[in-house]
Amino acid sequence: MFYTHSHADHILGLDDLRPLSFQHGDKLLPLFADETTEAVLRRIFDYTFSPESKYPTSARVEIRRLREREDLFGTTFERLAVSHGKQEINGFRFGSAAYLTDMSEIPAATMERLRGLDVLVLDALRHAPHPTHSHLEKSLAYVRELAPKRAFFTHMSHDISHAEVDATLPPNVHLAYDGLQLEFEIA
């Protein structure tokens, strides 16, 4: 599991990893997190990470410090810096795809790593501008500049009427939805 940042909506599902981690016996599932996110995870999930914890059904996980590149499953997962308001958080590129949620700006260096993708998933919170998230028109501008084959918008608020907005988007751009499965080259 790769963590983008330490906000509650991105970390509080850790306990849902428990049944998945039990399937692997004594093998610990790796969680990749930056220093700030690791500190928050250790504080909130003390019963999982504290050596003194006697909680018998904690998720069997280990935190690994996120590096600029991680080689897993035959592919490289590359950390991409993006802005979430005034905070720098993590996006990720893997194979011919990239995932950027909760971003308000994409720095120039990251933009260069996003060209020529098959799939780009990025934040599009609502119609109106927001101080810490990209909005629909801004995300469409990023798609026009980066020209991925397909783009999917995520982290949408109730201001986005899914069917109505999706019908107005360019043919290669769609609103993401729960259960969406994407195929792309990962290696």
Characterization of this structure:
The protein is an alpha/beta fold. The protein folds into two domains: 8-65, no CATH class; 69-175, Metallo-beta-lactamase, Chain A (4-Layer Sandwich), CATH 3.60.15.10. Helix content is 24%, strand content 26%. The chain is built from seven helices and nine strands; from the N terminus they run ααβααβββββαβαβαβ. The chain has helices at 8-11, 18-22, 35-44, 46-49, 108-113, 136-146, 162-166, and strands at 29-33, 61-65, 69-72, 75-84, 87-94, 97-100, 119-123, 150-154, 173-175. A seven-stranded mixed beta sheet has the order 3-4-5-6-7-8-9. Strands 1-2 form a two-stranded parallel sheet. Strand 6, helix 5 (108-113) and strand 7 (119-123) form a beta-alpha-beta unit. The longest helix has 11 residues, at 136-146. The protein is globular and about 55 Å long. The model has no long low-confidence stretch (mean pLDDT 95).
SSE layout and pairings?
Blueprint: H1 8-11, H2 18-22, E1 29-33, H3 35-44, H4 46-49, E2 61-65, E3 69-72, E4 75-84, E5 87-94, E6 97-100, H5 108-113, E7 119-123, H6 136-146, E8 150-154, H7 162-166, E9 173-175
Parallel strand pairs: 1-2, 6-7, 7-8, 8-9
Antiparallel strand pairs: 3-4, 4-5, 5-6
